[in-house]
Amino acid sequence: MSLILAMSLFSLSMSISPGPINLISLNTGANVGFKRAFGFVSGATVGFTLLLLLIGLVVEASIELATQSATGPDSGRRDVVDNGLTLIGYLGAAYLGYLGWRIATADTRLNASEQSTPSFIQGAALQWLNPKAWIACLTGVSAFRLAGDTQLLLQFSSLYFVICYLSIASWAWAGARLGLLLGSSKRLRWLNRSMGASLILLAGYLMLFAEQPSL
To answer: Which residue has the higher pLDDT, 29 or 79?
Structure first.
């Protein structure tokens, strides 16, 4: 039971804390409502869970070998890992900056049914391009020693799926409530600009973050 509690607290702290996925969910809920935000919420949850499973089943063993020695025969593997994370960081930052620009320039005069909504695919893709999502998965797999224990990995992934879904959905729900409070298109425009600018700044930070391999 203590292991389940530890896994739950880890999943909740990683899923509920502010980040690009949650900010986009908040903004989407404010602009188009809770129901229409569910595609993005679902994609982000499924994308993260699949990434967690992939790392647990395939990548972790290679990471452990690569990090045993920085100068030994495995140093080449470490370089591959670092270069891969750097590339993911750049791609993720670029995509996040694009989404931030789209949000900042969205036309709030349109009805909710006419506005474009981040899709399931975009939610999943953003998780796979988010270096922090990779680090969260690697941390979880390492901390709970999931590599090589398929049953425990599936248990953790199932638990994370539920908690992640509820956490991201709660941001979309909060955004929908905020949208009702703001009311006018002018106020929503300021919200969009603020959220878009925040995501663009975050993309800039991730560009710097990508230069510093974390493993």
So the answer is: 29
Q: What is the mean pLDDT of residues 183-192?
A: 68
How far is 41 from 123, CA to CA, in rounded Å? Answer: 7
Q: What torsion do the CA atoms of 46, 49, 50, 53 make, to the nearest 10 degrees?
A: -160
pTM: 0.73
Collapsing DSSP to helix, strand or coil, 149 comes out as coil
The rounded distance, in Å, linking the Cα atoms of 169 and 21 is: 10
Answer whether residue 161 shows pLDDT above 80.
yes
- CA angle 44/48/53 to nearest 5° reads 150
Is residue 184 very low, low, confident or very high in pLDDT (cuts 50, 70, 90)?
low
pLDDT over 70 (residue 167):
yes
Q: Which of 44, 53, 80 is nearest to 137 (CA)?
A: 53
The closest of 128, 108, 118 to 171, measured between CA atoms, is: 118
For residues 191 and 182, give the distance between their C-alpha atoms in angstroms, rounded to a whole number.
9
User: What is the pLDDT, as a whole number, of residue 88?
Assistant: 64
Closest to 205 (Cα-Cα) out of 127, 83, 90: 90
CA gap 143, 181 in Å, rounded: 42
| pLDDT reported for residue 215 | 43
| Signed CA dihedral, 49, 54, 56, 60: sign only | negative
d(CA 103, CA 97): 10
